[in-house]
């Protein structure tokens, strides 16, 4: 699947979120690499779904297996250690994306901001 901005999407959930970000002129970078960490990301290959202005990383969380939820918890810990905020989008929240991304919408403090931050390459 491909979003309207040309980004590849692995699920319908990702497609809807990416199209929302584009339709609302919210700057977003695809698949930021989380920093290496000796226990939370020892291979250095964990990726987020999007990086937004204001040090926000977004995960479209469409699965609920124990293994997936553990990986999501590790990503949340990595984001916090790196000084980023993780926003998790669940399928049930698709009707309320405007609330999740309120700070990035036209009236919000991050309206029109570009993604300039990046994760550090390693932490801990």
Task: Walk me through this protein's architecture.
- There is one protein chain.
- By secondary structure, the chain is α+β, with helices and mostly antiparallel strands.
- The protein has one domain: VSR Endonuclease (Endonuclease, Chain A), CATH 3.40.960.
- Helix content is 26%, strand content 12%.
- It has 3 helices and 4 strands; from the N terminus they run αβββαβα.
- It has helices at residues 12-23, 66-81, 97-100; strands spanning 29-30, 50-52, 56-60, 85-89.
- It has a 4-stranded mixed β-sheet.
Q: In terms of topology, how is this protein built?
A:
Layout: H1 12-23, E1 29-30, E2 50-52, E3 56-60, H2 66-81, E4 85-89, H3 97-100
Short description:
The protein has helices at 12-23, 66-81, 97-100; strands at residues 29-30, 50-52, 56-60, 85-89. It has 124 residues and is of the alpha+beta class.
């Amino acid at each position: 699947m491909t979003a309207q901005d040309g980004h590849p999407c692995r699920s319908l959930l990702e497609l809807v979120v990416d199209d929302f970000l584009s339709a609302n002129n919210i700057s977003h970078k695809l698949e930021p690499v989380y920093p290496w960490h000796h226990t939370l990301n020892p291979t250095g290959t964990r990726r987020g779904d999007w990086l937004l202005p204001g040090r926000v990383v977004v995960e479209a969380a469409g699965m609920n297996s124990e293994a997936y939820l553990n990986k999501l918890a590790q990503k949340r810990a990595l984001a916090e250690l790196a000084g980023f905020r993780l926003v998790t989008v669940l399928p049930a929240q698709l009707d309320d994306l405007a609330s999740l991304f309120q700070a990035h919408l036209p009236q919000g403090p991050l309206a029109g901001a570009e993604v300039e931050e990046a994760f550090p390459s390693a932490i801990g």
